[in-house]
Amino acid sequence: MPDIIRMLPESVSNQIAAGEVVQRPASVAKELLENTIDAGATEIKLIIKDAGRTLIQVIDNGCGMSERDARMCFERHATSKLQTANDLLSIRTLGFRGEALASIASVAQVDLRTKKTDDEIGTQLIIEGTEVKSHNPVSTSTGTSVQVKNLFYNVPARRNFLKSNTSELKYILDEFFRIALVHPDIAFTVYNQDKVMFQLPSANLRQRIVAIFGTNYNQKLIPVQQQTGMVNISGFIGKPEFARKKRGEQYFFANGRFIRNPYLHHAVEAGFMELIPKDSYPTYFLYLELDPSNIDVNIHPTKTEINFTDSKSIYAILQAAVRQALGKYNLTTVLDFEQEQSMDIPPLKPGQTIRQPQITVNPDFNPFEKKQEFQPSLRFENQDKNSRLASWSGGSQALPGQAGTIPSLPLAELIEKLGDEKNLSLNLESESPPLPLFQIANSYIVAETSKSLMFIDQQSAHERILYEEMLEYSKEEHTVSSGILPVSLWFSADDALLMNDLLSDFLALGFDISEFGNNDFVLQSIPADLGHTDFHGAVEKVLEAIKNDHPGKSVAKQQIIAKSMARSAAVKRGKPLKKEEMESIYQKLFACKMPEISPNGKPTLFVLSFDELLKKFKP
Ligand code: ADP
Ligand code: MG
């Protein structure tokens, strides 16, 4: 028997490798475009004919290649970007495997022209199916042009497998967008069938998104910005009101590379929870920057799937970033707080952090149950009586727009404007003149601000307050026991099983419930401010909600519990409120992250400006 094992000819092994890298014209466009970015280009042209079947050409003004490099770049595993295995951990370039050009050249006719800045003459290489047909000096401008003609001319099976021109062109454009969206500073031009299809000048990110997806995107975008030690997140999310039933534009990038990551997608959706209907999709363009050693991009040849070493924390940070961006947007746009033109507000210095307001809670204080002096207190940490605010608002004058009680600027904006002054004090305990609040229809709190009337739905607002307070407790583990406790709870056998499952989530929200045996439980403490309610009925409603929603994660379970509990315990419409109760709701509502919407998605308030009022009286 003769020996039968043989080495494959290079052309065949390259074709096999090409199967992984080059599936369709779009893969060629992607690889060529990535190389231009790695080459430091600032102007890039993409030329397409017949959806890439007959031609894909990419021209750049990047660093170019020497004559030797031009020859080398078509060798498999020839790369300038990686030398040792250790370099893999700190990779910053898009390519690093040195496979793309070799693979492309094995399944197409390639014409490469390239010149380095300092060279007088460039190099032209013509290759067909790995075979070098010609290799000549050429007069060409600095940078590189790669023409890929007749893709799969020597692999008919692959050619037949391609879809319609419309689909293939769409794939190419998808790849193009993923690169153009990461590099708004780079100018791109796309030609299709000799016509300009996209002309994208160097721009900022917002302008780039608008240039690609249309001018109507300008009004849809909310900026996201979150910096932490582990990851920096920036970019834009779409306003909730523009969420659509069909999947819109959803882009994640990690260290300048487009990625798919269903887990992070879920984090964004969780950030949007309550604000968009369940079957709608949010739009987002989110950019994560993190230490390359925290990413493993090597798990998939086309590199869109990546792993993070600590994806749980990234999930939490991302969700918080989205929520915060939404909260800020809602607060600054929904409320009609007017700002005086003459105000001299110190701008936020670079690197300056924004301090979150803290609500101090007196655990024994329950505005709805006890006759006690009401002491609204909204304060910043490190507070001091020396009031930065006083000078800001002009000495002894009240805050712009309203009496010296609640600042009539949106809270988030106010915090931002004031920055993290150590001495900043927003202490409202002293000298607070009464708020101009009153109740109508035993259901709505009306507040008068400088240029508008605000109507607050007491029930939805209180639901929002309780909901956020419970979720806050989950971090602080702060519970109280009150005179109404303990309360015994009893359930059917299967509800008791479910209940056992939820005890830790209840506890995280401030409800200390323990099992007593025989399907009996006892509720020993509750979060402050929850007040009297039918706890047995409330917990039963929670179980119903959990059964309907089947949440997998603890976070989701806690949100459902808090939502349901808030609904049960909130003050109802139709209940007359005392002045302190109205003040409490008003104060606490605006300390919430998302004051203008109830946890169940209902608006908590609306604003009628005096201008609108005036219009009503116009003949
Ligand atoms: P990789 O990008 O993984 O290194 P490629 O096969 O895509 O592998 O490219 C091989 C090498 O050719 C690159 O490492 C780079 O040095 C060079 N190269 C490719 N395209 C360009 C370009 N447009 N400009 C300058 N150099 C390039
Ligand atoms: Mg490459």
Helix content: 25-40%
The CATH topology of the largest domain is given as Ribosomal Protein S8, Chain: A, domain 1
Model regions low in confidence, pLDDT < 50 over at least 5 residues: 333-434
Mean pLDDT: 78
* Count of separate structural domains: 3
Outline the structure in words.
The structure is a single chain. With 619 residues, the chain is α+β, with helices and mostly antiparallel strands. The protein folds into three domains: 10-202, 2-Layer Sandwich (Heat Shock Protein 90), CATH 3.30.565.10; 213-328, 2-Layer Sandwich (Ribosomal Protein S5, domain 2), CATH 3.30.230; 376-619, Ribosomal Protein S8, Chain: A, domain 1 (2-Layer Sandwich), CATH 3.30.1370.100. Helix content is 33%, strand content 21%. β3 and β4 form a beta hairpin. α12 (458-476) crosses α15 (554-569), α13 (493-508) crosses α15 and α14 runs antiparallel to α15. The chain is elongated and about 90 Å long. Bound molecules: adenosine-5'-diphosphate (ADP) and magnesium ion (MG). Residues 31, 35-36, 38-39, 60, 62-65, 73, 78-81, 95-102, 144 line the site of adenosine-5'-diphosphate.
